Amino acid sequence: MISRIPVRGRWVRVRTSGDASLPTVVLLHGITRSLEDWDPTFEALAGEFRLIAPDLSGYGWSAPHPDGAGLAALGRGVGELLDALEVTGPVHVAGNSLGGAVTMTLLAQRPELVASMTLVDPAGFGSEVTPLLRVLGIPVLGKIIATTASRPGAIVQERLIFADKSYATRARIDHAMAIAHETDAGLTAWKTADELGSVRHGILPGWRDELHTTIAKTPRPTMVLWGDADRVLPPSQLENARSLMPHAETHLIPGVGHMPQLECATEFAALLTDFLQRNAIADLPRAASQ
């Protein structure tokens, strides 16, 4: 079920499935994206887990967070949504791209809420990023690009995400155009990109180093997946994730781009389900208390 719910005076669009008796999994999308990126995951995991996938603050059809569009505000928004849904945790959290960085931010902010992390082609493990996101850091021009909707631009972005271009469907392009025309998500994307990176340096190291230091104090069971054909965030960054989180389980998925949950949905769901079952919340009393 997709609904809009009030969270501290603003509207948040969220998809939910399952009831509170089931282990809870929170699914967080990437920059410029929306909760629809998790549709196949909902279909695959239905009945086994309580699933929650929001449009992040200011993205999709969710209202912006009053504290801005940086990681701190995006993470806070997720925590506030869980509070509004009366989710007390701990919950499993999975995040793709920017959503991976938001997942780690939520752990840093609210460690009692997070039982495990699944990071899917996540931001935060290197400076390299596609030039299409780098240009958002150009003063004035970046804002114009982010807030100007064009179908050719949407086609380029969708094709960039997938190794198999057949996944850049007309329906996905139409969805991207609807968001661009009906919301201010482009402005949010520019604000997020402006805070986290620059045209010269790519993804900035300051926030990455601070985040890694913080989450190292509250380690959780972690799985990191990366498509080996990712052209948004290079798969070489998986090695950085392995070095920074030696306890993490890692998977490099052949022939897949930036969104394994869409491009190899069956394999992704199987890996996620296996990881979640092996790291059941009932077996994590220490994680819940830290």
Automatic annotation (TrEMBL):
Note the superkingdom of the native organism.
Bacteria
Please state every residue range assigned to the domain named AB hydrolase-1. 25-270
Q: Which region is the signal sequence? A: none
Query: Which terms are listed as keywords in the entry?
Result: Hydrolase
- Cross-referenced InterPro entries, in alphabetical order? AB_hydrolase_1 (IPR000073), AB_hydrolase_fold (IPR029058)
Cite the Pfam families for this sequence.
Abhydrolase_6 (PF12697)
Gene3D superfamilies in UniProt: alpha/beta hydrolase (3.40.50.1820)
Q: Which residues form a coiled coil?
A: none
Task: Return one GO MF term.
Answer: hydrolase activity
The name this protein goes by in its record: Alpha/beta hydrolase
Q: Which organism is it from?
A: Tsukamurella pseudospumae
